[in-house]
Amino acid sequence: MVLSGRGVDVVVAGHICIDVIPAIQEKKEAMLTPGKLIDIGPALISTGGAVSNTGLALHRLGLKTRLMGKIGDDLFGNAVLKALEEYNEELSEGMIVASGEHTSYTLVISPPNVDRIFLHCTGANDTFSADDVKEDSLKDARLFHFGYPPLMKRMYEDSGTELECLLSAVKEQGLTVSLDLAKPDPESPAGHADWRTILRKAIAHVDVFLPSFEEILFMLRPEIYEKFTNVQQTNVLLSFANVQLLSLLTDELIEMGAAVVGLKLGEHGLYLKTSRNSARFQTMGFCSPPADKVEGWVNRELLVPCFQVRTAGTTGAGDCTIAGFLAALLKGLTVEEALISAVGVGAFNVEKADAVSGIPSWDMLRARISNGWLQQEIRFELFGWRYQEHLQVWSHDNP
């Protein structure tokens, strides 16, 4: 497909799929028991994955966005293109349609007050390669965001050589590079990959790294992850996310080369740590912080709680949180404003059952924040931290 040539602010590439989300009105015990019939409501069918969730959220926030996911030339693939075109006809132009391949899909089982279960087919995402990202597709863009390499076979096999090749080629074009993860099934080939090696190679070319706490704990500290899951009898481990462990994980990722590392903490908010090296921010590419704000990004350790909302669903909440952060970065805002924008977009997301229909314009987001939107209480021990009331974040002053 020939691109229209329109200028874009951001390219969002990586994993995309069709999400099928049945309406489940109440928690059901033993939902997947063989032979059991469960009465549920209509299914919501929408695009999912990082390309759709983060990309469409950025589009709804008013950023000029190009989406770059790989789909098959099948019924689900046609549905993906149609769904994107309903937002804007140009949003389907950057999509890669692979002849003879299958489009990825996910069944999302999301009972109220229970973490989601995903039944996932990776499809054409597994063949996504560095060659799929053409130089022309990056023209005029300032930021490149790549999402979910653990669900894309070419990206994690061979110790992440293809992922490193892709991100280094983008970085050479001068773009700011952002990366997000997904947690693979521990028993799958992706779950057995050497993620410390993969990340060390990839993050050398990444400016902003925004995984979840549980994803990065699984990849960098598998022994701790296993210990916590044995204690909890679940992989929902946010109760163990104390600031000491968060700092330990982010320090290692900054040492690998990232300028900014944010760990998504679900309902607990977003934790952020940045490089001590001010020169690192001058190498962030087209979205380097403005000269009058750059010192405010250097050597920071911040924690922002979520805003108070009535939750309808959590599908895509992390991806939309990332969209809020990247939008602020693209607009040249302060690190505190980026954090507040991130959890603000995440809060709008969970007010709807699907991933992106709740995302507002940028002006609507800023207006709600400015009008005294209440935040959740912090659930961490924060000795030595201070609350920046006018900025709505907690700050730890590093020596």
Automatic annotation (TrEMBL):
Official protein name in the record: Carbohydrate kinase family protein
Which PANTHER family does the UniProt entry name for this protein?
CARBOHYDRATE KINASE PFKB DOMAIN-CONTAINING PROTEIN, HEXOKINASE FAMILY MEMBER
Does the entry feature the keyword Iron-sulfur, yes or no?
no
Q: Tell me which residues make up the Carbohydrate kinase PfkB domain.
A: 10-360
Q: Which domain of life is it from?
A: Bacteria
Q: Which InterPro entries match?
A: PfkB_Carbo_kinase, PfkB_dom, Ribokinase-like
Q: Which family does it belong to?
A: Belongs to the carbohydrate kinase PfkB family.
Is the keyword Nucleotide-binding in the record? no
The Swiss-Prot or TrEMBL record annotates one GO molecular function as: kinase activity
Q: Which SUPFAM superfamilies match?
A: Ribokinase-like
Keywords of this protein's UniProt record, alphabetized? Answer: Kinase, Transferase
